[in-house]
Design brief:
alpha+beta; elongated; 125 residues
């Protein structure tokens, strides 16, 4: 019985240590993304993590601000969707990436397209 208690305590302590190592993605992130004709556009991402759920909004894409949906956090990995309207059509932009220190590296892809774009954001707060 004593060995079982020691093992259970060790397991709980190990799990707590792993979750403590997970990056805190909450806050404001800023950077630039490639636009048309070699121009860049500013991007600001405000995120709030609650366990494995991720909420927030992205501004700078198409000149407005859009809420994120389907947001998930798994350790240092994040994923979310931003829906944007262009010429009366809604487009679903999928983002996934990883927090590495004060940098959030994301890959963006438009639903239905194989093309991806890399976006690197720095913690702004």
């Amino acid at each position: 019985m004593k060995l079982r208690t020691i093992l259970a305590t060790g397991l709980i302590a190990g799990l707590m240590a792993v979750s403590a190592l997970a990056a805190d993605v909450s806050g404001k992130w800023a950077g630039e993304t490639a636009g048309r004709n070699g121009q860049t556009r500013p991007v600001t991402l405000t995120l709030k993590a609650d366990g494995s759920n991720l909420t927030g909004e992205m501004s700078g894409m198409r000149g407005g601000s859009n809420p994120i949906s389907e947001g998930k956090v798994d350790g240092d990995n994040v994923s979310f969707v931003v829906k944007v309207e262009f010429n009366g059509n809604e487009m679903k932009m999928n983002y996934s990436g990883k927090v590495e220190g004060a940098t959030l590296n994301l890959k963006m892809s438009r639903e239905g397209s194989d093309t991806t774009r890399d976006i690197s954001l720095k913690r702004a707060e």
